[in-house]
Amino acid sequence: MITSFPTPYPDEIFHSLIARYHMYSGNLIYKHTALDLFGVPNINLNRNLPSHLGTLIDNMSNKPLNLEDLIINHTLYPYFTAFKSKKDREKVKNSMIYNNYHHSVKSGLTGTVKSEKLLQHCYKCIEEDTNKYGETYWHRIHQVPGVLVCPYHKIPLIWSSKKSFDSYYYYNFCIASSEDLLDKPVEREVNEEELDLLYRYAVEAEWILSQSKYEKVYEFPLDIKTILKSKGDFFRKNGSIKHNKLYLDFKTIFSTSFLNLMQSPIKNNENSWLRSILKRNRSHPLRHILMIMFLSDSISDFNYKLNNNPPPKEEEQCPFGLGPWPCLNPTHSKYKKDVINNVELRVIRDTKLLMGVFKCSCGFVYSRRATYPESEENYRINKISFGPLWEKKLTTLIKEGYKLQSICKKLQADQSTVKRYATLLNLEFSWKGHTLDELKKSGKYTNTKCKFEKKLSERRNLWLDLIKRDQNVTSVTNSSLYRWLLRNDREWLKKNYPKSKRCKEPKRIINWEERDKELLEEIKEIIREWKRLETSRPKKITKYSLAMQSKNPNFLTNDIDKIPLTLNYLNTVIELPEQYKLRKLEWAYEHLLVNNEPLTKTKLINKAAISNNPKTNLIVEEFLLSKRCK
Q1: DSSP 226-270
Q2: In terms of Cα–Cα distance, which of 115, 109, 112 is closest to 144?
Q3: Taking the mean position of all CA atoms in its chain, how far away is CA 461?
Q4: Residue 546, Cβ neighbours under 10 Å: how many?
Q5: N or C, fewer C-beta in 10 Å, the chain?
Q6: 3-class secondary structure for 111-131?
Q7: Position with higher pLDDT, 182 vs 76
Q8: Under a CB-based contact definition with an 8 Å cutoff, are residues 535 and 118 in contact?
Q9: What are phi and psi of 149, to 5 degrees?
Q10: Distance between CA atoms of residues 10 and 209, nearest Å
């Protein structure tokens, strides 16, 4: 059994979670990790839609992970099933739980759109993760096919050749290390127009991942044709589509270079995906999103155009879906029918989770946590106020002489609840040796509000006595009494809280002019010793890499506006991508020369570990020409 397992970070992909367990467990080889988690040494974990998840949860002793939460929030299941029917989504989910890979064709994993083999990250996300958690991790949104730009910071993603990932390789758990990523990062070069389009796509992909309970299934290609009719003259009189016009308009919005980046080039012929998406719903989710971007500003706007209803504002969006909601009173004629039109949203004080309170006209009130998924979980409830209709039915059943078990079944309540309400309503009964008088004398089923008020009064008096005896804030706040009052009587506790006797230390004033001069000398010394830091390969000179070598990195990351001298110097030494490429080429050239290896363009590019594209080829040719001239 697994006794400890890392807690998932927000939007952490499942692969990263397994990789962190491998690192923390101290296992030397990946087979041992697979054996710990899944009970077998050989396992194939697909990065997008991993299987064997049910086995993993079963092997955990204290069940720290929720299976539904793991699938919805830490895999690409919401993305690959966003445009599938409810039946197909259930098939994919079951195959992820019950250890098979029959879901790949259904979910669009096969086809011409391939997932990146290199795990991707964002410079700023790495910095934010390190500051917040002390380490970074692989973000799920960065691994979505076609996401080449961070949707939070609008900058191109980076990857490292050290972090290669092959979904069919059994034992490759890649740790997200900021040192490795920033040691030899590769960044895709895109122009401003492509950056805007890539950012739009990334935002839409992130919206799909965040809307894990979103139940709308678009009926492609029917919905596409509906919007095309309203968008412009795309149909002939006989009802056929003007494919030439659609092709030209699509090319106007999306450039050829952008479509190539998205692995979705189009041709004006019968084999083009642009035509096939109008005939059948088997395209990759990436292409569905591209089509929605062509037809509307966003998926939310696309939904609005289909339904002729304005998209809800962010503050109006309900985590329980759009109403109405069902009444769950088994004595009501509208039982399990959607008759409740309003929901009251509250925040649970301890967990900070959202809770909805649903009140029916019959008097029945129930609450649900927003963490519950939709569909059949619509009928899962936390707290209940039964109301007069339910109590009237209870009275009738008792008077008619029904047994306790029969009453519980008809009212869908446990025996303790039925006994308590019968006692409070003063109904004559005799069940399993208990009578109304006996239960009244025992006080077991008295009014809970009265019991709570009595307990509250007692705890308040205990608290006042405690702070009289001990004015030490630390020892008082460590007591269980303090925690109980904090949960149940916070406002009163604030008014009756002991004041701290500790004197506040005066705030230390930093002389930023002196600090700037000291930091400037420190950075100059780091630059002079930079060659020594490059143990194996050239290391790019960036603000982040310099900060990591300084004594206090926060000055270069958080207080850069207070150190103008250092900032001016940094602008002169920080390497641009072209400068870094040339330095890597110089290193690769010397390395090949020393080892008597052939000085070919291909050898040089591979050794320098730079991307092979027309722009890079031109730089390499100029570099080789300059070397030959010497």
Answers
A1: HHHHHHSS-B-TTS-B-HHHHHHHHHHHS-HHHHHHTT----SST
A2: 115
A3: 45
A4: 20
A5: C
A6: CCCCCCCEEEECHHHHHHHHH
A7: 76
A8: no
A9: -130, 140
A10: 12
pLDDT of residue 419: 80
Here the tokens at position 459 are 């705890």
What letter represents residue 154's amino acid? K
Cis before residue 614, ω within 30 degrees of 0? no
Give whichever of 178-192, 326-340, 360-374, 439-453 has the largest mean pLDDT: 326-340
Residue entry with tokens 């706040």: 477
* Distance from chain centroid for Cα 627: 50
Cβ atoms within 10 A of the Cβ of 594, count? 8
- Are 199 and 149 a contacting pair, CB within 8 Å? yes
Rounded Cα gap, residues 469 and 420, in angstroms: 40
Longest dimension (CA), the chain: 109
pLDDT at 630 > cutoff 70: no
Q: How far apart are CA 232 and CA 624, in angstroms?
A: 54
> What b/e readout covers 491-520, taking b as 16+ CB neighbours within 10 angstroms?
eebeeeeeeeeeeeeeeeeeeeeebbeebb
User: What percent of the chain clears pLDDT 70, i.e. is strictly above it?
Assistant: 77
- Edge to edge, the sheet with strand 384-385 lists 343-347, 354-359, 365-369, 384-385
Instruction: State how far the Cα of 38 lies from the Cα of 415, in Å rounded to an integer.
Output: 41
Please say whether the beta carbons of 18 and 30 come within 8 A: no
Residue 496 to residue 474: CA distance in whole angstroms: 15
Confidence of residue 150 (pLDDT cuts 50, 70, 90): very high
Three-state secondary structure call for residue 373: coil
Q: According to the 3-state scheme, what is the secondary structure of 541-599?
A: CCHHHHHHHCCCCHHHHCCHHHCHHHHHHHHHHCCCHHHHHHHHHHHHHHHHHHCCCCC
Encode pLDDT of 47-69 as tens digits: 788 888 888 888 887 767 888 88
Which alpha helices (H) appear in 362-433, and where do they start and end? 388-399, 404-411, 415-424
Q: For residue 400, give both structure tokens.
A: 């008619």
Look-up: residue for tokens 């959607």? 338
Q: Strands 325-326 and 185-187: what pairing? A: unpaired
* Spatial separation of the C-alpha atoms in residues 219 and 84, rounded to whole Å: 9
Q: Does the global pTM surpass 0.70?
A: no
Averaged confidence pLDDT in the chain: 78
CA–CA distance from 322 to each of 216, 312, 334, 338, 340 (Å)? 11, 10, 19, 11, 11
Q: What is the pLDDT of residues 402-427, one digit of tens each?
A: 888 888 888 888 877 888 787 777 77
Residue type, 452: F
User: Got the DSSP string for 77-102?
Assistant: HHHHTTTS-HHHHHHHHHHHHTT--T
- Provide the β-strand partners of residue 358: 343, 366
Average pLDDT over residues 457-484: 74
Instruction: Kindly state the average pLDDT of the residues 546-573.
Output: 78
